[in-house]
What we know:
Jelly Rolls; 13 strands; alpha+beta; disordered N terminus; Arc Repressor Mutant, subunit A
Amino acid sequence: MSIxxxxxxxxxxxxNKLRVIVNDQIFKTVASPPAAAAPQVHSAxxxxxxxRSSKSNCQGCNLRKMCLPSGLTLDESKQVDTMFTSRRQVxxxxxxIRYGEKFTSLFVICTGFFKSYVVLExxxxxxxxxxxxxxxxxxxxxxxxxxxxNVIALEDxxxxxxxxxxxxxxxxxxxxxxxxxxxxxSREIFFESETKLMLGMRAEVRLVAxxxxxxxxxxxRGLSQWVVxxxxxxQEIGSYLGIRPETVSRIFSKLTKQGMLEVxxxxxxxxxxDLLCDLADHLA
Length: 284
């Protein structure tokens, strides 16, 4: 059995009944989600790898096809390599990007998981997204020249650093890279629209859509389409989806009893993808 092909171009599963244009009214009618208490995090510590491998090299990277265009000539590939200044380690619980900090670079995740979030006036934390290997961080800083969210490592991770002044030069000189950057920005806009749409669904549909999206993204990276190891807590999932942590646990338990999942703490085994998709379509 293979994953049902009902997901969007970015991978977020949207039930058939809700495949419509997102508008502001949908988003405004969604109640403010319960916020998770902001945890105490380490100061922003990013450790450069002190070895020959600290200089990023795209040629041998197995994620190359996820962030770079195909069809580059040898000379263009060498030019693109100059965009990346270093491959850096970020320890679990350390901030890579801090809210309000000056925007200078973009980052491509090599390994690991990251969470983006903002701290509300109440001091609570609102999760705004989860990112994995092959995806880009820091795009929020382009418009205002400063970052609008915090980005923290959920596990030990590595990122490639791209100073933006180098990115600007490369996209001017290499037309395929300019097109690639447009595609990345377009996917971000599309993803934000679909996330707003997802917040208008019932809690059960939100969680199923989130899970199927996660599976699709991991499978695209060569990982199992049947087993997911969650790097985030139930509280973080709830904050992102706008539902309470206990509701997340309750829905997981319900889906387990219905034979769709097996849940062992953070290990989720998907038994019936077809039923999950049908459930989301029926409840939407």
